[in-house]
Amino acid sequence: NDRAHEQLERLSAIGQISAGIAHEIRNPLTSVKGFLQLLQKEHDSRYWEIINSELEQAISTVQNLLAVSKPEKNDENWSSVNLCEILENTLSLFDHEMYRVKVEKRFYNTASMVLGKRNQLKRAIFNLLKNAFEAIEGEGTITVEHFRSDNKVCFRIRDTGKGIPKDKLSMLGTPFFSTKTDTGTGLGLSQVYSTFYEHKATINVESLEHQGTEFTIQIPMIDRFLEDKMQMELTIDNTMS
Ligand code: ADP
Ligand code: MG
Protein backbone atom coordinates (compact mmCIF):
# COMPACT_ATOMS: atom_id res chain seq x y z
CA ASN A 1 0.00 0.00 0.00
CA ASP A 2 3.07 2.21 0.19
CA ARG A 3 3.11 2.36 -3.54
CA ALA A 4 -0.52 3.43 -3.68
CA HIS A 5 0.22 6.15 -1.19
CA GLU A 6 3.24 7.34 -3.11
CA GLN A 7 1.13 7.47 -6.26
CA LEU A 8 -1.44 9.62 -4.49
CA GLU A 9 1.19 12.07 -3.29
CA ARG A 10 2.48 12.47 -6.81
CA LEU A 11 -1.05 12.90 -8.05
CA SER A 12 -1.89 15.66 -5.66
CA ALA A 13 1.29 17.60 -6.43
CA ILE A 14 0.43 17.62 -10.09
CA GLY A 15 -3.20 18.22 -9.29
CA GLN A 16 -2.65 21.67 -7.85
CA ILE A 17 -1.50 23.06 -11.15
CA SER A 18 -3.42 21.02 -13.63
CA ALA A 19 -6.88 21.29 -12.14
CA GLY A 20 -6.96 25.02 -12.76
CA ILE A 21 -5.74 24.68 -16.31
CA ALA A 22 -8.09 21.82 -17.06
CA HIS A 23 -11.10 23.83 -15.97
CA GLU A 24 -10.07 26.76 -18.11
CA ILE A 25 -9.73 24.55 -21.15
CA ARG A 26 -12.78 22.40 -20.66
CA ASN A 27 -15.30 25.21 -20.68
CA PRO A 28 -14.36 26.76 -24.02
CA LEU A 29 -13.98 23.31 -25.58
CA THR A 30 -17.44 22.29 -24.48
CA SER A 31 -18.93 25.49 -25.76
CA VAL A 32 -17.16 25.16 -29.12
CA LYS A 33 -18.58 21.67 -29.40
CA GLY A 34 -22.07 22.94 -28.78
CA PHE A 35 -21.82 25.68 -31.41
CA LEU A 36 -20.32 23.27 -33.91
CA GLN A 37 -23.34 21.06 -33.54
CA LEU A 38 -25.54 24.04 -34.38
CA LEU A 39 -23.41 24.91 -37.42
CA GLN A 40 -23.51 21.33 -38.55
CA LYS A 41 -27.24 21.60 -39.09
CA GLU A 42 -26.77 24.44 -41.54
CA HIS A 43 -23.74 23.31 -43.49
CA ASP A 44 -23.00 19.88 -44.71
CA SER A 45 -19.33 18.99 -44.66
CA ARG A 46 -17.19 15.90 -44.28
CA TYR A 47 -14.87 17.91 -42.05
CA TRP A 48 -17.34 17.82 -39.19
CA GLU A 49 -16.43 14.28 -38.30
CA ILE A 50 -12.76 15.15 -38.01
CA ILE A 51 -13.43 18.27 -36.00
CA ASN A 52 -15.76 16.36 -33.74
CA SER A 53 -13.39 13.49 -33.08
CA GLU A 54 -10.51 15.87 -32.38
CA LEU A 55 -12.67 17.79 -29.96
CA GLU A 56 -13.79 14.59 -28.29
CA GLN A 57 -10.15 13.64 -27.85
CA ALA A 58 -9.29 16.99 -26.29
CA ILE A 59 -12.30 16.93 -23.98
CA SER A 60 -11.51 13.40 -22.89
CA THR A 61 -7.93 14.37 -22.05
CA VAL A 62 -9.14 17.27 -19.98
CA GLN A 63 -11.70 15.08 -18.21
CA ASN A 64 -8.96 12.62 -17.30
CA LEU A 65 -6.79 15.44 -16.07
CA LEU A 66 -9.58 16.77 -13.90
CA ALA A 67 -10.42 13.33 -12.56
CA VAL A 68 -6.80 12.74 -11.65
CA SER A 69 -5.88 16.12 -10.31
CA LYS A 70 -8.77 16.77 -7.98
CA PRO A 71 -10.28 13.45 -7.02
CA GLU A 72 -11.40 14.83 -3.66
CA LYS A 73 -13.30 17.62 -5.41
CA ASN A 74 -15.09 15.11 -7.53
CA ASP A 75 -18.58 15.59 -6.23
CA GLU A 76 -20.18 12.67 -8.00
CA ASN A 77 -22.61 10.80 -5.78
CA TRP A 78 -22.10 7.25 -4.61
CA SER A 79 -24.77 4.91 -5.77
CA SER A 80 -25.26 1.24 -6.38
CA VAL A 81 -23.66 0.47 -9.70
CA ASN A 82 -23.92 -2.58 -11.89
CA LEU A 83 -20.41 -3.33 -13.01
CA CYS A 84 -21.39 -5.83 -15.71
CA GLU A 85 -23.63 -3.27 -17.28
CA ILE A 86 -20.80 -0.73 -17.38
CA LEU A 87 -18.47 -3.33 -18.90
CA GLU A 88 -21.03 -4.14 -21.60
CA ASN A 89 -21.83 -0.52 -22.41
CA THR A 90 -18.23 0.58 -22.47
CA LEU A 91 -17.20 -2.32 -24.67
CA SER A 92 -19.77 -1.26 -27.23
CA LEU A 93 -17.92 2.05 -27.64
CA PHE A 94 -15.18 0.00 -29.32
CA ASP A 95 -17.39 -1.63 -31.93
CA HIS A 96 -15.35 -0.01 -34.69
CA GLU A 97 -12.30 -2.02 -33.54
CA MET A 98 -14.00 -5.38 -33.65
CA TYR A 99 -12.95 -6.02 -37.24
CA ARG A 100 -9.39 -6.57 -36.01
CA VAL A 101 -9.73 -7.41 -32.33
CA LYS A 102 -11.76 -10.32 -31.14
CA VAL A 103 -13.48 -9.67 -27.85
CA GLU A 104 -14.31 -12.58 -25.59
CA LYS A 105 -16.74 -11.91 -22.81
CA ARG A 106 -16.91 -14.19 -19.82
CA PHE A 107 -19.44 -12.91 -17.38
CA TYR A 108 -19.83 -15.68 -14.85
CA ASN A 109 -22.21 -14.10 -12.49
CA THR A 110 -24.61 -11.31 -13.10
CA ALA A 111 -24.63 -10.19 -9.47
CA SER A 112 -22.20 -7.36 -9.93
CA MET A 113 -23.42 -4.48 -7.82
CA VAL A 114 -20.87 -2.27 -6.16
CA LEU A 115 -21.17 0.95 -4.27
CA GLY A 116 -19.51 3.42 -6.57
CA LYS A 117 -19.26 6.57 -8.59
CA ARG A 118 -20.78 5.55 -11.87
CA ASN A 119 -19.11 8.02 -14.19
CA GLN A 120 -15.70 7.60 -12.64
CA LEU A 121 -16.00 3.83 -12.97
CA LYS A 122 -17.13 4.14 -16.59
CA ARG A 123 -14.17 6.35 -17.38
CA ALA A 124 -11.75 3.99 -15.63
CA ILE A 125 -13.06 0.97 -17.52
CA PHE A 126 -12.96 2.95 -20.75
CA ASN A 127 -9.33 3.91 -20.07
CA LEU A 128 -8.36 0.28 -19.39
CA LEU A 129 -10.09 -0.97 -22.52
CA LYS A 130 -8.60 1.80 -24.63
CA ASN A 131 -5.10 0.78 -23.55
CA ALA A 132 -5.89 -2.85 -24.32
CA PHE A 133 -7.04 -2.01 -27.85
CA GLU A 134 -4.05 0.26 -28.38
CA ALA A 135 -1.63 -2.41 -27.20
CA ILE A 136 -2.73 -4.72 -29.99
CA GLU A 137 -1.15 -3.91 -33.31
CA GLY A 138 -3.19 -5.50 -36.04
CA GLU A 139 -5.13 -8.51 -34.88
CA GLY A 140 -5.52 -9.92 -31.42
CA THR A 141 -7.88 -10.82 -28.64
CA ILE A 142 -9.22 -9.03 -25.62
CA THR A 143 -10.83 -11.08 -22.91
CA VAL A 144 -13.13 -9.40 -20.44
CA GLU A 145 -14.04 -11.50 -17.45
CA HIS A 146 -16.29 -10.77 -14.58
CA PHE A 147 -16.50 -12.95 -11.49
CA ARG A 148 -17.16 -12.90 -7.78
CA SER A 149 -14.63 -13.81 -5.19
CA ASP A 150 -15.70 -13.80 -1.55
CA ASN A 151 -17.19 -10.38 -0.99
CA LYS A 152 -15.49 -8.81 -3.99
CA VAL A 153 -16.79 -8.02 -7.42
CA CYS A 154 -13.90 -8.65 -9.78
CA PHE A 155 -13.18 -8.08 -13.38
CA ARG A 156 -10.23 -8.76 -15.58
CA ILE A 157 -9.22 -7.26 -18.90
CA ARG A 158 -6.63 -9.27 -20.76
CA ASP A 159 -5.10 -8.38 -24.10
CA THR A 160 -2.74 -10.15 -26.46
CA GLY A 161 -0.90 -6.90 -27.11
CA LYS A 162 2.71 -5.91 -26.87
CA GLY A 163 2.96 -6.08 -23.09
CA ILE A 164 4.80 -3.88 -20.64
CA PRO A 165 8.54 -4.21 -20.00
CA LYS A 166 9.34 -5.26 -16.43
CA ASP A 167 11.22 -2.09 -15.65
CA LYS A 168 8.23 0.03 -16.65
CA LEU A 169 5.69 -1.74 -14.44
CA SER A 170 6.39 0.46 -11.44
CA MET A 171 5.67 3.56 -13.53
CA LEU A 172 2.08 2.61 -14.20
CA GLY A 173 -0.34 5.13 -12.77
CA THR A 174 2.21 7.94 -12.64
CA PRO A 175 0.65 10.98 -14.30
CA PHE A 176 2.07 11.70 -17.73
CA PHE A 177 3.94 8.41 -17.94
CA SER A 178 3.38 7.22 -21.48
CA THR A 179 5.28 5.18 -24.03
CA LYS A 180 3.01 6.35 -26.83
CA THR A 181 5.01 9.09 -28.44
CA ASP A 182 2.34 10.97 -30.38
CA THR A 183 -0.96 9.80 -29.06
CA GLY A 184 -0.42 9.24 -25.36
CA THR A 185 -1.14 11.63 -22.53
CA GLY A 186 -0.21 9.27 -19.74
CA LEU A 187 -3.32 10.20 -17.80
CA GLY A 188 -5.50 7.17 -18.43
CA LEU A 189 -4.00 4.88 -15.83
CA SER A 190 -3.67 7.69 -13.31
CA GLN A 191 -7.41 8.10 -13.54
CA VAL A 192 -7.79 4.33 -13.22
CA TYR A 193 -5.58 4.11 -10.14
CA SER A 194 -7.11 7.05 -8.34
CA THR A 195 -10.64 5.89 -9.10
CA PHE A 196 -10.10 2.37 -7.83
CA TYR A 197 -8.16 3.63 -4.84
CA GLU A 198 -11.21 5.71 -3.93
CA HIS A 199 -13.36 2.57 -4.31
CA LYS A 200 -11.05 0.65 -1.96
CA ALA A 201 -10.38 -1.73 -4.79
CA THR A 202 -7.16 -3.56 -5.55
CA ILE A 203 -5.48 -3.55 -8.91
CA ASN A 204 -3.23 -6.33 -10.04
CA VAL A 205 -1.19 -6.14 -13.23
CA GLU A 206 0.45 -9.06 -14.96
CA SER A 207 2.30 -8.44 -18.16
CA LEU A 208 4.74 -10.16 -20.44
CA GLU A 209 6.45 -8.35 -23.26
CA HIS A 210 5.20 -9.38 -26.70
CA GLN A 211 2.55 -11.55 -25.09
CA GLY A 212 0.08 -9.34 -23.40
CA THR A 213 -1.23 -7.68 -20.31
CA GLU A 214 -3.84 -8.47 -17.75
CA PHE A 215 -5.43 -6.04 -15.32
CA THR A 216 -7.46 -7.56 -12.50
CA ILE A 217 -9.60 -5.29 -10.36
CA GLN A 218 -11.30 -6.39 -7.16
CA ILE A 219 -13.94 -4.08 -5.74
CA PRO A 220 -15.55 -4.68 -2.36
CA MET A 221 -19.13 -5.71 -2.87
CA ILE A 222 -21.98 -3.49 -1.94
CA ASP A 223 -23.15 -4.09 1.57
CA ARG A 224 -26.70 -5.44 1.79
CA PHE A 225 -27.47 -3.09 4.62
CA LEU A 226 -26.13 -0.08 2.76
CA GLU A 227 -27.99 -1.11 -0.33
CA ASP A 228 -31.29 -1.15 1.59
CA LYS A 229 -30.48 2.16 3.18
CA MET A 230 -29.67 3.71 -0.18
CA GLN A 231 -32.84 2.34 -1.67
CA MET A 232 -34.74 3.99 1.14
CA GLU A 233 -33.00 7.31 0.58
CA LEU A 234 -33.74 7.10 -3.12
CA THR A 235 -37.39 6.46 -2.40
CA ILE A 236 -37.53 9.37 -0.03
CA ASP A 237 -35.81 11.59 -2.61
CA ASN A 238 -38.29 10.61 -5.24
CA THR A 239 -41.33 11.27 -3.12
CA MET A 240 -40.00 14.68 -2.20
CA SER A 241 -39.33 15.84 -5.74
P1 ADP B 1 -1.43 6.56 -22.45
O1 ADP B 1 -2.36 5.46 -22.90
O2 ADP B 1 -1.94 7.91 -22.80
O3 ADP B 1 -0.01 6.33 -22.89
P2 ADP B 1 -1.95 5.49 -19.83
O4 ADP B 1 -1.85 6.11 -18.48
O5 ADP B 1 -3.29 5.00 -20.25
O6 ADP B 1 -1.40 6.56 -20.85
O7 ADP B 1 -0.92 4.30 -19.92
C1 ADP B 1 0.44 4.57 -19.59
C2 ADP B 1 1.36 3.59 -20.27
O8 ADP B 1 1.18 2.28 -19.71
C3 ADP B 1 1.13 3.41 -21.76
O9 ADP B 1 1.78 4.40 -22.53
C4 ADP B 1 1.71 2.02 -22.00
O10 ADP B 1 3.10 2.07 -22.12
C5 ADP B 1 1.42 1.30 -20.69
N1 ADP B 1 0.21 0.44 -20.79
C6 ADP B 1 -0.97 0.63 -20.17
N2 ADP B 1 -1.84 -0.35 -20.46
C7 ADP B 1 -1.20 -1.19 -21.31
C8 ADP B 1 -1.56 -2.42 -21.97
N3 ADP B 1 -2.78 -2.97 -21.84
N4 ADP B 1 -0.62 -3.00 -22.75
C9 ADP B 1 0.60 -2.46 -22.88
N5 ADP B 1 1.00 -1.32 -22.29
C10 ADP B 1 0.12 -0.69 -21.50
MG1 MG C 1 -4.27 5.20 -22.15
From TrEMBL:
Query: What positions does the domain Histidine kinase occupy?
Result: 20-223
What is this protein's record name? histidine kinase
